[in-house]
Protein backbone atom coordinates (compact mmCIF):
# COMPACT_ATOMS: atom_id res chain seq x y z
CA UNK A 1 0.00 0.00 0.00
CA UNK A 2 1.42 3.37 -1.00
CA UNK A 3 -0.54 5.42 1.55
CA UNK A 4 -3.10 6.83 -0.89
CA UNK A 5 -6.76 6.03 -0.64
CA UNK A 6 -8.76 4.92 -3.64
CA UNK A 7 -11.48 7.43 -4.52
CA UNK A 8 -14.50 5.17 -5.07
CA UNK A 9 -16.79 8.13 -5.78
CA UNK A 10 -14.55 9.33 -8.62
CA UNK A 11 -14.47 5.82 -10.10
CA UNK A 12 -18.25 5.89 -10.48
CA UNK A 13 -20.77 3.15 -9.81
CA UNK A 14 -20.06 -0.39 -10.96
CA UNK A 15 -23.72 -1.15 -11.71
CA UNK A 16 -27.03 0.53 -12.53
CA UNK A 17 -30.54 -0.65 -11.71
CA UNK A 18 -33.46 0.48 -13.83
CA UNK A 19 -36.68 -0.44 -15.57
CA UNK A 20 -38.30 -0.10 -18.98
CA UNK A 21 -41.56 -1.22 -20.59
CA UNK A 22 -42.59 -2.69 -23.94
CA UNK A 23 -46.05 -3.02 -25.49
CA UNK A 24 -45.94 -6.69 -26.52
CA UNK A 25 -48.58 -6.23 -29.22
CA UNK A 26 -45.80 -4.31 -31.05
CA UNK A 27 -44.17 -6.13 -33.96
CA UNK A 28 -40.58 -7.37 -34.00
CA UNK A 29 -38.01 -4.61 -33.70
CA UNK A 30 -35.40 -2.98 -31.52
CA UNK A 31 -35.59 -0.85 -28.39
CA UNK A 32 -32.73 1.31 -27.11
CA UNK A 33 -32.47 1.62 -23.32
CA UNK A 34 -30.37 4.64 -22.33
CA UNK A 35 -29.43 6.49 -19.16
CA UNK A 36 -27.32 3.71 -17.67
CA UNK A 37 -24.30 6.03 -17.47
CA UNK A 38 -21.74 3.61 -18.90
CA UNK A 39 -21.34 0.78 -21.42
CA UNK A 40 -22.48 -2.42 -19.67
CA UNK A 41 -20.45 -5.61 -19.82
CA UNK A 42 -23.39 -7.78 -18.77
CA UNK A 43 -27.02 -7.41 -17.66
CA UNK A 44 -29.47 -9.34 -15.49
CA UNK A 45 -33.15 -9.03 -16.47
CA UNK A 46 -36.42 -9.78 -14.65
CA UNK A 47 -39.57 -9.39 -16.75
CA UNK A 48 -43.31 -9.83 -16.35
CA UNK A 49 -46.50 -8.69 -18.08
CA UNK A 50 -48.53 -6.31 -15.88
CA UNK A 51 -52.13 -7.22 -15.07
CA UNK A 52 -52.07 -10.22 -17.45
CA UNK A 53 -51.19 -13.82 -16.70
CA UNK A 54 -47.97 -13.94 -18.66
CA UNK A 55 -45.63 -15.56 -16.24
CA UNK A 56 -42.25 -14.11 -15.55
CA UNK A 57 -38.65 -14.63 -16.53
CA UNK A 58 -35.21 -14.00 -15.10
CA UNK A 59 -32.31 -13.93 -17.53
CA UNK A 60 -28.79 -12.72 -18.19
CA UNK A 61 -27.01 -11.35 -21.23
CA UNK A 62 -23.52 -10.14 -22.13
CA UNK A 63 -24.35 -9.27 -25.73
CA UNK A 64 -23.19 -12.70 -26.91
CA UNK A 65 -24.10 -15.33 -24.32
CA UNK A 66 -27.58 -15.31 -22.83
CA UNK A 67 -30.23 -17.47 -21.20
CA UNK A 68 -33.51 -17.10 -19.35
CA UNK A 69 -35.75 -19.19 -17.10
CA UNK A 70 -39.23 -18.63 -15.76
CA UNK A 71 -42.85 -19.66 -15.63
CA UNK A 72 -45.24 -19.41 -18.54
CA UNK A 73 -48.71 -17.87 -18.55
CA UNK A 74 -50.54 -21.19 -18.77
CA UNK A 75 -50.15 -21.70 -15.03
CA UNK A 76 -49.12 -18.23 -13.92
CA UNK A 77 -51.16 -18.42 -10.71
CA UNK A 78 -49.19 -21.42 -9.46
CA UNK A 79 -45.90 -20.98 -11.38
CA UNK A 80 -45.60 -24.71 -11.91
CA UNK A 81 -44.95 -24.59 -15.64
CA UNK A 82 -41.29 -23.69 -16.02
CA UNK A 83 -39.34 -22.80 -19.10
CA UNK A 84 -35.67 -22.29 -19.80
CA UNK A 85 -34.06 -21.30 -23.06
CA UNK A 86 -30.71 -20.23 -24.46
CA UNK A 87 -30.18 -17.24 -26.78
CA UNK A 88 -33.04 -15.28 -25.18
CA UNK A 89 -32.65 -13.12 -22.07
CA UNK A 90 -36.24 -11.81 -21.67
CA UNK A 91 -39.26 -14.07 -22.27
CA UNK A 92 -43.01 -13.87 -21.76
CA UNK A 93 -44.41 -17.20 -22.87
CA UNK A 94 -48.06 -18.24 -23.32
CA UNK A 95 -49.32 -14.77 -22.35
CA UNK A 96 -52.77 -14.90 -20.71
CA UNK A 97 -52.67 -18.68 -21.00
CA UNK A 98 -52.77 -18.56 -24.81
CA UNK A 99 -50.40 -21.24 -26.06
CA UNK A 100 -47.80 -19.76 -28.40
CA UNK A 101 -48.64 -16.09 -27.69
CA UNK A 102 -45.15 -15.11 -26.63
CA UNK A 103 -42.67 -12.22 -26.72
CA UNK A 104 -38.92 -12.59 -26.40
CA UNK A 105 -35.90 -10.34 -26.42
CA UNK A 106 -32.13 -10.24 -26.15
CA UNK A 107 -29.46 -7.57 -25.85
CA UNK A 108 -27.91 -7.34 -29.30
CA UNK A 109 -25.84 -4.25 -28.58
CA UNK A 110 -24.10 -2.98 -25.43
CA UNK A 111 -23.94 0.77 -26.02
CA UNK A 112 -21.96 3.65 -24.47
CA UNK A 113 -24.93 4.69 -22.25
CA UNK A 114 -27.06 1.52 -22.17
CA UNK A 115 -28.07 -1.32 -24.45
CA UNK A 116 -30.35 -2.27 -27.33
CA UNK A 117 -32.89 -5.09 -27.13
CA UNK A 118 -34.01 -6.93 -30.26
CA UNK A 119 -37.58 -8.23 -29.85
CA UNK A 120 -39.38 -11.18 -31.45
CA UNK A 121 -43.19 -11.38 -31.37
CA UNK A 122 -44.73 -14.85 -31.69
CA UNK A 123 -48.44 -15.04 -32.61
CA UNK A 124 -50.58 -12.33 -30.92
CA UNK A 125 -49.58 -11.52 -27.32
CA UNK A 126 -50.98 -8.36 -25.71
CA UNK A 127 -50.11 -6.40 -22.61
CA UNK A 128 -47.37 -4.26 -21.18
CA UNK A 129 -44.11 -6.03 -20.43
CA UNK A 130 -42.23 -4.51 -17.50
CA UNK A 131 -38.52 -5.29 -17.40
CA UNK A 132 -36.24 -4.59 -14.46
CA UNK A 133 -32.51 -4.73 -15.11
CA UNK A 134 -29.18 -4.62 -13.34
CA UNK A 135 -26.41 -3.54 -15.73
CA UNK A 136 -22.79 -4.06 -14.68
CA UNK A 137 -19.79 -1.96 -15.68
What does this structure look like?
With 137 residues, the protein is mainly beta. Helices cover 3% and strands 53% of the residues. It has one helix and ten strands; from the N terminus they run H-E-E-E-E-E-E-E-E-E-E. The protein has a six-stranded antiparallel β-sheet, with no helix packed on it. A four-stranded antiparallel β-sheet has the order 2-9-8-7, with no helix packed on it. A hairpin with a 5-residue loop joins strand 3 and strand 4. About 5% of the residues have low confidence.
What percent of residues adopt helix (DSSP H or I)? Answer: under 10%
| Largest sheet, strands/sense/barrel | 6 strands, antiparallel
Helical element count?
1
Instruction: State which percent range the strand residues make up.
Output: over 45%
What structural class is derived from the secondary structure elements? mainly beta
Reading the helices and strands in chain order gives HEEEEEEEEEE
The coarse overall form would be elongated
What integer value in Å does the Rg equal? 17 Å
Question: Unreliable stretches, pLDDT < 50, 5 or more residues?
Answer: 76-82
Q: Whole-number average pLDDT?
A: 82
Distance between the termini: 25 Å
State the oligomer.
Answer: single chain
Strand adjacency order, main sheet: 1-10-3-4-5-6
Number of strands: 10
Amino acid sequence: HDGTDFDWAAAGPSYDIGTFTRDISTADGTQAVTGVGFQPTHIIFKGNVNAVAGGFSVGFDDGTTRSTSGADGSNASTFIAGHSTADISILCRDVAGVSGASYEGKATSLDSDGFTITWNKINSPTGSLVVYYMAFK
